[in-house]
C-alpha cells in the first residue's frame, strides 16, 4: 500500500525531534512521529493531499513559532516522499519470549518504535493481550527458534527457568544478532554453568546479556521495559550488540 514518508532533514534552534526522524503516513493510519503538535498535524495533512493528488515528493522549511504557533521557536526542514510500501526488511526482527507482565510491558514500549518488527512467542494463545504484533503459540518455544531470522534480536522472559534455559541453548545453536535474558546475577551464574555443560563455549555464552534492563530504574515491569528499550535504541548499543550486560 502506498504511503508517504516524512523525514526531518534539517533543524535549527529548539525543535521537537532531531534530523533523520521519520514517520509514515497512509490514508488511514500513521506510524512513527516527527514530534507531534501542529507541525506533525500539518505534515500529515500535506502527506494525505499528496496521496490524493498523486504527487511523489515535496519539501518545505517551517519556522515553528511564526508558522505553527509552537513554543519550540526553531525551524525544521521536511521532506515528503512516496514510499510504495513500508520497508519491513529494514526493521530489526525482535523475538520476545513470554507474555507475562514484563513481556507485555516490553511489547507496549517496543511496538510503537518503527525500527522493530516484533514476533511474540508464548505457550498458550490466552496469554496474549490484544496487540498489533505477530504472535506465535508454541507448547515448546525453543522449537520455534529455528524459524527466527539469523539477524534477529531475542529477549527471553518466560515463566519458567527451564524454558529460559532451553531457549538460551537453542539460540546459541542458531545464528542471532543479540540475546537478552531476564534474571538475577545468581540465575545467570547457574545458567552459564549449565550452558557450558551443554557444550557452548564461554565466548558464545558471553553474548547473552543478563540481567536485562537498567537496575537503577527498579524492578517494575514498566521500568525493566524502559531500560531494555533505551539500550536497544541507543546507537552505541546497536553497534556493539554482542556484549555481556
Report on this structure.
32% of the residues lie in helices and 24% in strands. It is α/β, with parallel strands linked by helices and 245 residues long. It folds into 2 domains: 3-86, no CATH class; 89-239, NAD(P)-binding Rossmann-like Domain (Rossmann fold), CATH 3.40.50.720. The chain has a 6-stranded parallel β-sheet, with helices on both faces. Strands 3-2-1-5-4 form a 5-stranded antiparallel β-sheet. Strand 2 (22-25) and strand 3 (30-32) form a beta hairpin. Helix 3 (101-110) packs across helix 7 (221-233). The two termini are 40 Å apart. Residues 4-57 form the XdhC- CoxI domain. It comes from Yoonia maricola.
Q: Mind telling me the C-alpha Rg?
A: 21 Å
Helix content: 25-40%
Coarse structural class: alpha/beta
What is CATH's topology name of the largest domain? Rossmann fold
Spatial gap, N to C terminus: 40 Å
CATH architecture of the largest domain: 3-Layer(aba) Sandwich
Global outline: elongated
The biggest sheet, with number of strands, parallel, antiparallel or mixed sense and barrel status, is: 6 strands, parallel
- What is the number of beta strands? 11
Show unreliable segments: 236-245
Mean pLDDT: 87
Tally of domains: 2
**Amount of beta strand:** 15-25%
CATH superfamily of the largest domain: NAD(P)-binding Rossmann-like Domain
Please give the count of helices: 8
Assign the CATH class of the largest domain: Alpha Beta
Amino acid at each position: 500500500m502506498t504511503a508517504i514518508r516524512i523525514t526531518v532533514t534539517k533543524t535549527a534552534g529548539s525543535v521537537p525531534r532531531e534530523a533523520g526522524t521519520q514517520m509514515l503516513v497512509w490514508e488511514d493510519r500513521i506510524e512513527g512521529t516527527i514530534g507531534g503538535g501542529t507541525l506533525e498535524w500539518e505534515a500529515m495533512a500535506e502527506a494525505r493531499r499528496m496521496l490524493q493528488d498523486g504527487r511523489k515528493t515535496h519539501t518545505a522549511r517551517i519556522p515553528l513559532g511564526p508558522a505553527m504557533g509552537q513554543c519550540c521557536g526553531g525551524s525544521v526542514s521536511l521532506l515528503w516522499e512516496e514510499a510504495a510500501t513500508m520497508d519491513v526488511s529494514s526493521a530489526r526482527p525482535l523475538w520476545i519470549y513470554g507474555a507475562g507482565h514484563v513481556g507485555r510491558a516490553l511489547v507496549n514500549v517496543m511496538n510503537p518504535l518503527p525500527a522493530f518488527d516484533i514476533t511474540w512467542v508464548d505457550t498458550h494463545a490466552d496469554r496474549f493481550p490484544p496487540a498489533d504484533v505477530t504472535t506465535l503459540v508454541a507448547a515448546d518455544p525453543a522449537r520455534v527458534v529455528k524459524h527466527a531470522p539469523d539477524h534477529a534480536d531475542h529477549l527471553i522472559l518466560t515463566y519458567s527457568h527451564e524454558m529460559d534455559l532451553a531457549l538460551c541453548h537453542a539460540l546459541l545453536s542458531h545464528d542471532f544478532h543479540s540475546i537478552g535474558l531476564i534474571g538475577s546475577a545468581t540465575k545467570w551464574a547457574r545458567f552459564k554453568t549449565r550452558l557450558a555443560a551443554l557444550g557452548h563455549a564461554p565466548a558464545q555464552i558471553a553474548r547473552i546479556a543478563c540481567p536485562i534492563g537498567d537496575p537503577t530504574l527498579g524492578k517494575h515491569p514498566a521500568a525493566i521495559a524502559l531500560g531494555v528499550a533505551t539500550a536497544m535504541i541507543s546507537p552505541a548499543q546497536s553497534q556493539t550488540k554482542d556484549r555481556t550486560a
